[in-house]
Amino acid sequence: MVTEPSRPFVLVHGGRHGGWCWQPVARRLRARGHEVFTPTLTGLGERAHLLSRGIGLGTHIEDIVATFEYEDIRDAVLVGHSYGGMVVTGALERIGDRVRGQVLLDGHMPRTGESVFDLIGPERAKAMIELAEEQGDGWYIPTADAARYGVTDPAVAAWVNSRMTAQPLKTYQDPIGPTGRAWQHPGTFVECVPSSLEPHLLQRARARSAADARFHHQVLHTAHDAMVTDPEAVTALLLDALDLG
C-alpha cells in the first residue's frame, strides 16, 4: 500500500553510466506505486552505438527535456547523479514547471557558464584530457572500473563493469547555459561519504542549504555510486523528496 502521494520520478545517471544503474532503486520505487523513468543519455549505456565526438552537454540536456515532453511528465522528482547534476541543472531552465523538486545525488551543481572541468579543477581535467588523447582517439573518455566509484562488492562490481561505456569529452568541456531556475528550485543535495566530488563543491552545497530554506543537505554514508551500493537508503531519500515543493 502506497502511503505517500504517487508521483513520477525521473532518474538521470552520471558519466559513463546509463539508465541501467538505477535498476535497484527503480524497482523499489515502482513497488511503492510510483512511475519511474530512467532515461539513458545519448551515446552511453544501451545507446553507446550513437557515441560521437559531437555529443555535448546540450545534447544530454535535450534528452531529458524531450523525456519530459514526450512522456508528458509533470509534478516529478528529478534526480541527477554525479555528472547528471549538470544535465538536471540545465534541463530545469525549460522544464522547471514540471518538476516538484530536484535531488542531486553526489551531483554537480554548476553556476551559469561553468563546465564539468571548471568544477573538478585543472589537475583532474588535464588527466581526463590526457586519457582521452591516449585511449579515446582524442575525443572520448574510456570506461572506468567500478572501484573508482566506490563499488567493492565483487558481484555488484562485475555487474557495473559489464555495463560501463565511454563518455564524450565534449560533455565535460561544454559550459552550461543559464542556471537561475535550478538555483531557485526546491531541492536536496545528498553528499555521499566518501564523495568523489571536490571539497569546494560539497561546501557549495552546504552553503546553499544554509542560505535557502527550500534546499536541503543530507549525508549518506556509502560510496559515490550510492544507487547500487545502498539502494534502500537512496530510495528512502527520494521518497522524502516528495515533500519538496
Q: Which strand-content bin applies to the residues?
A: 5-15%
Roughly what percent helix? 40-55%
Report the strand count. 8
* Overall pLDDT: 96
Give the CA-based shape.
globular
Uncertain segments are none
Element pattern in H and E: EHEHEHEHHEHEHHEHEHH
Main pleated-sheet profile: 6 strands, parallel
The neighbouring-strand order within the major sheet is 2-1-3-4-7-8
Tally of alpha and pi helices: 11
Gap from first CA to last CA:
24 Å
Estimated structural class = alpha/beta
Radius of gyration: 17 Å
What does this 3D model show about the protein?
- The chain is α/β, with parallel strands linked by helices and 245 residues long.
- It has helices spanning 23-31, 57-70, 84-95, 116-120, 122-135, 154-161, 170-173, 180-184, 199-211, 226-229, 231-240, and strands spanning 9-12, 36-37, 76-81, 99-105, 140-141, 167-168, 187-192, 215-220.
- The model has no long low-confidence stretch (mean pLDDT 96).
